[in-house]
């Protein structure tokens, strides 16, 4: 039997690589600075080095859309770091929406010299990472990150689900637009993300405030501006309302038995943007689901390790989620 001994998740923000019987061997940003060598585009710097280089970096995954040419450049460097060779097998963990590009992910691995490749929705690995007691029951899993993955899973199989393009990325964009329109300051994407991380809240009485710097509108002059949680409260509520509506739409067509399971267990909730203040209360009002179970950001990689430990069933899990 051919063995898969690496799991790779190429995410919008971060790329993670898990090695069987070792653990996470790489966790770095999904960005790259490129240059031309001869007639080829090559990596000048990747990951955190590219992010902090001061040069214009490029995102390999932008709002769910993958640039496979850039992905080959980035993963070429990361596969070297993780010491992945042609004798190794690789399991790609991708969003549900990107499962339609399964053949492209396989071709990407082949181009990097890997001969045995499987592709699986990352939400399945996330489910394994939660270590659910009764895996044969149905449960609702919501991973809110740059975008949001929503899935109802039973016995390791997705009953229904979708990738929803609401989450941290939209909030960053809305914050930048709000500050530009209302305070006449143009923020970098890093500064907009900082505002989100430090101020985003679903509590209307949150009074936190920070100062950030940006260009004064239509000038090259720099200035500071004070931003409060109150300033961005409306747009944060708007984004999480859209997520809650998407959850409701996905579970609305389920039969009564599945709905009872979900009602009993609540939401299995994870992802960087699930840590926002007030989310549990907000969703309990919007969805009438009382239980929320949080896991660390590496929950998907924890699950990937469990899947890699069960080599006999990897192909079965992949097949039932294609």
Strand order of the largest sheet: 3-2-1-9-10
Distance between the termini: 21 Å
Shape: flat
The helix count comes to 11
pLDDT averaged residue by residue: 92
Question: Proportion of β residues?
Answer: 25-35%
Largest sheet: 5 strands, mixed
The beta-strand count equals 18
N to C succession of SSEs: EEEEEHEEEHEHEHEEEHEHEEHHEHEHH
Q: State Rg.
A: 21 Å
Secondary structure class reads alpha+beta
Low-confidence stretches: none
Query: How much helix is in the residues?
Result: 25-40%
Quaternary structure type: single chain
Provide a concise account of the structure shown.
With 322 residues, the chain is α+β, with helices and mostly antiparallel strands. It has helices at 47-51, 68-82, 102-111, 122-129, 168-183, 189-199, 229-251, 256-265, 279-287, 299-309, 314-319; strands spanning 6-10, 14-19, 23-29, 31-37, 40-46, 58-59, 61-62, 65-66, 89-94, 116-121, 138-144, 148-154, 157-164, 185-186, 209-216, 222-228, 267-270, 292-294. It contains 11 helices and 18 strands.
Topology:
Blueprint: E1 6-10, E2 14-19, E3 23-29, E4 31-37, E5 40-46, H1 47-51, E6 58-59, E7 61-62, E8 65-66, H2 68-82, E9 89-94, H3 102-111, E10 116-121, H4 122-129, E11 138-144, E12 148-154, E13 157-164, H5 168-183, E14 185-186, H6 189-199, E15 209-216, E16 222-228, H7 229-251, H8 256-265, E17 267-270, H9 279-287, E18 292-294, H10 299-309, H11 314-319
Parallel strand pairs: 1-9, 9-10, 11-17, 17-18
Antiparallel strand pairs: 1-2, 2-3, 4-5, 4-6, 7-8, 11-12, 12-13, 14-15, 15-16
